[in-house]
Amino acid sequence: MGIELNNFNILYFIYGIVGGLGIFLYGLRLMSNSLKHLAGKKIITLIERTTGSPLKGLITGTLITAIIQSSSATTSITLGLVTSGLMTFSQAFYVIMGANIGTTSTSVLIGLDISEHALPIIAIGAVLALFFKKERICLIGTTIFGLGLLFFGLDLVSSELINLSTFPFFQNSLQNLSQNRILATIVGALLTAMVFSSSAVIGITQKLYAAGSLDLYISIPIVLGANIGTTVTAVIALVGASIDAKRTALANILFNVFGAIVFLIFLHPFINLLFWIENKFFVENSMSTIALGHVFFNIASTIPMLLFVDQLLKFVSKVIPDRSLSSDLSY
Asked: What is the 3-class SS of 148-203, one letter each residue?
């Protein structure tokens, strides 16, 4: 039996969505910032020293993003190093490719389905952050506190959307999305660009899929779109950036768009594979199916791309030419 749609319920729904999303994003930011402070300047030093080869850059981007739980942070740091001349265009692109793999760690974390323990996690984090004077313990506490907020906010948003899914208009909209993979991908990209977090969009998708409100034919294209939408952070970071930084951001956008297009072409066999894996291993926790799809997409689109990086970088260099060279040629 569906809930009645009246002004009070609409207002409560908006509060739940906006408040829950705010808690999730704040928890993610708090966790990311705390982890960055724990790592200190070692992150920048690590990026500077371990990008001498494509493989090192790829591994560095993956590990750092998995540690600090933010591909946006890794991308911003990398673009900053490129702008300051401490890293080349090609070195930066490999790091960002690795960041795309590392960011899947958040969906894997959400896939563990420990949201029912969100409040105890928040309590433990608060105790460590508030009642211990040692900075390292306080930072560990705020990291745990942020993790608890992440799960708590995600539960608030998903519960409201699950309630909304009982209405016919919502079900019809989902039916249209399931029949139009491109539209579902665009929705994922736009939602991610709006909230500046692919983790939020993918996390909500995981929850809705586990509740039966979404099927894989909607969920996977949304995940693909979220990978495109997350590049908006790099675009914003380009204000006042160098030519090489702009080239890096464009290469990242093209890389994510190309990967999504390839997977959309082979969407049906990919989803059939995920169905088989879910029935074999994830019957009790279907959120892990989306996490696995996210991981598989990012790894599978990155490895073949390594063969065509030189061509992509040459193309981007032609699209965004060196201004000084252009000026010299004009004389």
From this structure: HHHHHHHHHHHHHHHHHCCCHHHHHHHHHHHCCHHHHHHHHHHHHHHHCCHHHHHH
